[in-house]
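Service request form, structural biology core

Requester: graduate student, group of Dr. S.
Request type: structure prediction, single chain
Budget code: on file
Notes: please return the result as structure tokens.

Sequence provided:
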Amino acid sequence: MADGRRARRGRTRDRDRGQVALEYLGFLPLLLLVALAAVQLGLIAYAAQQAGTAARTGARSASLRENFGADCANAVSSWLEAGCVSAELGDEVRVTSTVTIPSVIPGIDFGTASKTAVMPVDH
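Core staff response, request fulfilled:
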């Protein structure tokens, strides 16, 4: 009787042999989607941080009456697209920086990240 149970257990194990591999393959697309979402969130945060850096650099340059546009564009990573707009506010200058958020998912546009910085004008 013990030999009969062992034989049945052996046959069950043979049938279940590739089950884990198939379950993993079925779960793999979900893992890839979560990984892409995490990378995209990181890119969004990085673009927002770079927009803040560009705005502060541009405001500092504009307050010293220098070429704020070039300084603003040079303040961000070379693979990001950035632009800055300046506004005189009497004794202050306001610079708004806009950075295009890159996408790791083809066909989806995540827009731009914008930050503003205000600095006193150096007389």
